[in-house]
Amino acid sequence: MTPPDLIDSRLTVEGRVATLTLHRDDVRNELTGTLLAGEIVAVADWISREESISVLVLTGMGAAFCAGGNIKHMHERGLPGNEGGTFSGDAYTVQNRYRHGIQRMALAMHKLEVPSIAAVNGAAVGAGCDLACMCDIRIGSTEAKIGETFVNLGLIPGDGGAWFLQRVVGYQRAAEMTFSGRLLDAAEAQAIGLFLETVPPEALLPRARTLAESFAAKPPQALRLAKRLLRAAQGTAPLPDHLELCAVFQGLAHNTEDHTEAVAAFLDHRPAAFKGR
Fold first, then answer.
1. CATH topology of domain 9-216
2. Among 8, 61, 56, 11, which Cα is nearest to 201's?
3. 10-residue stretch averages of pLDDT, the chain, 277 residues long
4. 8 A C-beta contact, residue 94 and residue 27
5. Is the dihedral of CA 72, 157, 150, 116 positive or negative?
6. How high is the pLDDT of residue 89?
7. CB distance 183 to 146 below 8 Å
8. Would the CA dihedral through 43, 102, 74, 60 be positive or negative?
9. Which residues, in sequence order, are bridge partners of residue 22?
10. Residue by residue, what is the 3-state secondary structure of the chain?
């Protein structure tokens, strides 16, 4: 399948790993005044349909991973001549912009069928923090800072951050971050489990790539089924219902060619050659 056309981001594919780089360093890769949110949606939807891709790495160009919303645009919302601005309009208009804008990004990332790794190269604040939390795994540069900063501007996480963050760090940690609006440095983010690990800036993308390639080396169908199962387990379904889903997915996995190849390779003490079938 043909990848989506992109303007504010760059997509590269090497082997079974896709890397999406937010490419608006001029505005710290902010989401509300650029095309980035929509392009993330397009890429996530494309990858979910494109079976040749097994992992997505998401990172930012320049000094920031993602600065979230544009504060200058928030300031301009009530000024004459800015009636059509990102944050302008009555409550109904603004809520529709969220529903049909940045919230589509949250839904697309949540539905993404392959593992995702956020390589957090710099500041990830507000919706940028939430975007990182929409990924399965976060690796941080030692120079990165991250925070759920909405309350500092008299706002709440309108992109679903309250849902994502507590699933990453637990309710109590998420509450403290949300109520304080403070920034965490990379070391603290790792200590509370927000970052899986931290590495020097020059090692960030190589480490993310190495991890992605280790995932992508696994049977592609099993990898996607495992991702779907993990996401389903975050819901409120009781254990018996979850086990029913496990049985269905396992029935699918047992009947793939890759399962047969994996077993044979294990017994033959050789590398497996998976075909995604």
1. 2-enoyl-CoA Hydratase; Chain A, domain 1 (3.90.226)
2. 61
3. 94 97 95 93 97 98 89 67 64 82 92 98 96 98 97 89 95 97 98 98 98 97 96 86 86 89 89 91
4. no
5. negative
6. 72
7. yes
8. negative
9. 9, 60
10. CCCCCCCCEEEEEECCEEEEEECCHHHCCCCCCCCHHHHHHHHHHHHHHCCCCCEEEEEECCCEEECCCCHHHHHHHHCCCCCCCCCCCCHHHHHHHHHHCHHHHHHHHHHCCCCEEEEECCEEECHHHHHHHCCCEEEEECCCEEECCHHHHCCCCCCCHHHHHHHHHCHHHHHHHHHHCCCEEHHHHHHCCCCCEEECHHHHHHHHHHHHHHHHCCCHHHHHHHHHHHHHCCCCCCHHHHHHHHHHHHHHHHCCHHHHHHHHHHHHCCCCCCCCC
> What letter represents residue 100's amino acid?
H
Phi then psi for 246, rounded to 5 degrees? -60, -40
pTM value?
0.90
Could you tell me which residues come within 8 angstroms of residue 10 by beta carbon, excluding any fewer than 6 positions away? 20, 21, 23, 61
* Pairing assessment for the beta strands 145-147 and 184-185 based on DSSP bridges: antiparallel
What pLDDT shows up at residue 243? 85
Give the Cα separation of 3 and 120 in Å (integer). Answer: 24
Backbone phi, psi, residue 20, to 5° = -110, 120
Write down the domain spans for the chain: 9-216, 220-268
Tell me how far apart the terminal alpha carbons of the chain are, to the nearest angstrom: 18
Distance CA 240, CA 242 (A): 5
Q: Give the number of other CB atoms < 10 A from CB of residue 199.
A: 18
The CA-CA-CA angle for residues 99, 111, 128, to 5°, reads 60
Q: Phi then psi for 147, rounded to 5 degrees?
A: -165, 145
